[in-house]
Amino acid sequence: MLEKLSYSQTKDVLEIISHRIIANQDALNKADREIGDGDHGTAMVRGFTAVLKILELEEHENLQALFIAAGNAMIASVGGCAGIIFGTFFRSGGKALDESMNLDATGFSKFLSGAYQAVKARGKANLGDKTMLDALHPAVEEAKKSQHLDFPVFIHAVAEAAREGMINTGQLLASTGRAKDFGKNAIGKLDPGSITLYWIIDCFDAYLNKIHSI
Questions:
Q1: 41 lies in a domain?
Q2: Which of 63, 79, 132, 211 keeps 20 to 30 A from 122, CA to CA?
Q3: Do residues 176 and 193 lie in contact, with contact meaning Cβ atoms separated by under 8 Å?
């Protein structure tokens, strides 16, 4: 049972995440057409293609530097709200880590907490606004209370919390961004950013637990 991910293994997970998002461009665009401009998948493909490039071409001294580089790559390549928000997620999550070469439950909890605070401030959104925060916040809270668990058990609990948060966005009215223009028509539709956020965490879960193919 893995109790931590090495630097190399964490890079592997980032690569898996990138390929999963890229492969699901159409699904993300479809979800975004329901309550937005329909380009979330396209934006994420640009961002994660840039992440793949830095994973291939660059080596970093620790996990902090790796995540910061991934975030910077997203911001530089995507532009717009989605690139800034997910770039901030990776960059600020990375800044919350020490200079470790390994990622364990405590480190992952610090990563999510740092990412949440930065994304909340950057996006000027609140819980219940039907954004990725509604999936990220329950993941943060689960991570805080589950750090004592074995890492694979911990990460599965965190992923499940993110999944439930993602699903719950379907019950929310949007209070920010393009989605708020849809009013009550947004009810029953998932926030596409929350889908992306869940998939990111779910890839860590799948890597550690081999629950399903990615």
A1: yes
A2: 63
A3: no
Q: Is residue 214 part of a domain?
A: no
Q: What is the pLDDT along the chain (214 residues), one digit of tens a residue?
A: 788 999 999 999 999 999 999 999 999 999 999 988 889 999 999 999 999 999 999 889 999 999 999 999 999 999 788 999 999 999 999 999 988 999 999 999 999 999 999 999 998 888 999 999 999 999 999 999 999 999 999 999 999 999 999 999 999 766 666 555 555 666 788 999 999 999 999 999 999 997 543 3
Q: Helix, strand or coil for residue 45?
A: helix
Between CA 209 and CA 94 the distance in angstroms is 23
**What CATH code is carried by the domain that includes residue 142?**
1.25.40.340
Which residues 6+ apart lie within 8 Å of 182 measured at CB?
Answer: 34, 35, 174, 189
β-bridge pairing 102-103 and 5-6: antiparallel
**Which residue range forms the structural domain that includes residue 17?**
5-209
If one counts every other C-beta atom within 10 angstroms of the C-beta of residue 99, the result is 9
The amino acid sitting at 22 is I
Task: Tell me the Cα Rg of the chain.
Answer: 16
Domain count, the chain: 1
**Do the domain assignments include residue 178?**
yes
